[in-house]
Amino acid sequence: QVQLVESGGGLVQAGGSLRLSCAASGSIFRLHVMAWHRQAPGQQRELVARITSGNTNYVDSVKGRFTISRDNAKNTVYLQMNSLKPEDTARYYCYALQGWSEYWGQGTQVTVSS
Question: pLDDT band at 29, cuts 50/70/90?
Fold first, then answer.
């Protein structure tokens, strides 16, 4: 089992920055993929950013503003969010893939005011 715990969400004005953290615990051997998804009220959950051993991918709407990174020694993945917009308001969820098993955190709320 892998447990994922997110932190770092909050309320920020448009143009501001936040850094989300996702700490993984439990059996964290070979977490092949870690990612951040988000879900706004009334909308489907969408992939925001993903990181594997050598690559990162971003949804078009956050390219150039968000950066995903991971610290394998700390079993933590980060999402640095800059130039935040009101449309970034959502609950952000950490995701991990280990073999064929998927894991999700409980999420952290990000609210961007205009």
Answer: low
